[in-house]
Amino acid sequence: MDGKATTARERARIEITAEILAAARVRLSQHGPGQLSLRAVSRDVGMVSSAVYRYFRSRDDLLTALLIEAYNELGAAAEDADAAVGNRSAYLERWTATCTAIRTWAISHPGDYALLYGSPVPGYAAPQDTIPAATRVTIVLVRIVLDAHADGATVRPPPPLTPKSLGKTLAGALEFIKTLDAPPAAQDPEVALHTIAAWSAIFGTISFELFGHLVGSVSDYDAYYEQVLIRLADDLGLA
Amino acid sequence: MDGKATTARERARIEITAEILAAARVRLSQHGPGQLSLRAVSRDVGMVSSAVYRYFRSRDDLLTALLIEAYNELGAAAEDADAAVGNRSAYLERWTATCTAIRTWAISHPGDYALLYGSPVPGYAAPQDTIPAATRVTIVLVRIVLDAHADGATVRPPPPLTPKSLGKTLAGALEFIKTLDAPPAAQDPEVALHTIAAWSAIFGTISFELFGHLVGSVSDYDAYYEQVLIRLADDLGLA
DNA sequence: TGTACATCAGTGAACGCGCGTTCACTGATGTAC
DNA sequence: TGTACATCAGTGAACGCGCGTTCACTGATGTAC
What we know:
The structure is a homodimer.
Chain A lengths: L7 H24 L6 H7 L14 H25 L7 H18 L1 H8 L13 H20 L15 H4 L1 H9 L9 H22 L10 H16 L3
Chain A binds a DNA duplex through helix 1 and helix 2.
């Protein structure tokens, strides 16, 4: 069992695990998180429901695996979109490309998106294992901001009311930013605040679109989203 | 039946309808939309499940009534918070008070909030009846922006890339704004864009907090939210 | 004011459904000698 | 290379559960005369 010679059983196990996950993803994309059940997935994959227990200890385990896979897929989409921009100093372009990729992914995987960013699934609490996957997309966005600020970008001076304690409020975020080798210029509560706010705004905008809150107000979601992105980038000092 | 002399039956009907709704709201606040079922509500209210059908034609009817009640409660909270600001020209104060009231309501009614702004309930589509109630909170926010812009507030000039078609993209929103007797200065796609974006950002921020996406980044949600509000107000030209 | 009938609220049993999970089983795959 | 045993994937029945909805019923409230 030195990892080289995989038996037929081992190969089958990996393949079927993937097959179950894929079936669950399809169900999720076509029917939403509410319709996702272990039995439904087992039916889709052509197994008896109890057989799935050979691959996932419980429904919650399956959910966790799904969350991780979906987060990773979204994260990869964001990473790829950013990486595809040749001019690494075109921060606005990187920002727009990344955010557009995020929305594109969300629209083509509405069920997954609802699972990740909609109301939490009742009776299920995501374990710590999902964090690294969940963080990938965030890192892409933050990295663009950090790169821009290493290159002289600035955020508008804060309004007069900013309390001294803002750094403490965002200590976790600032710590996280340090992890990413942030330039000193970006290790600033004001930059962190704008970044977190922009991050929330992006997902708020996508959620409003997908969950139907913009019906009647916005007729061209593509155009709307692009303009929102540009304003957010402007706010972050990207160009 | 001239509406004056209500019979005991009629009074009872109104009271019990309200009682059922109240029980459903309690369930919602304590267990979330996933745990909301007609049977559970009937149990809470001490009735047999079939009896609820005397008051609501179906589960979907009950859901609709709940949505309307919750939207109205949120709308009223926002309206009250705005109205409580004596100086009607203190737009930043009105904005902050209103947005704070929205978040306060959301936090004390997380289940209702998830029902209104989280992932849609599977198999349920909200009917048109919910629109007026849903719009109330939006009107409060928009009204503050409109008042400020009638009073000389301005939004920063848009970045160079703004397309001519932005007005068409936001035609619905501009139409809606006209309904509210918007001053000419505010009948501007750029103002509309900033307003819708701010509206989405507020609910995105609240959702991120309630749905757990800020865990680890933000330690003091009150302080964080207040600073986000101030930046949004700044962006909208409020002061 | 009293009686006869109509309306309606609430009961309790039943329908068919899907769910997560357990368990004893069969039969195929892998391993040790 | 062949045999004996251990491991494991998948089956099918069963468990107890909660769900939305229907239906014939009882008994109270309302209405017309």
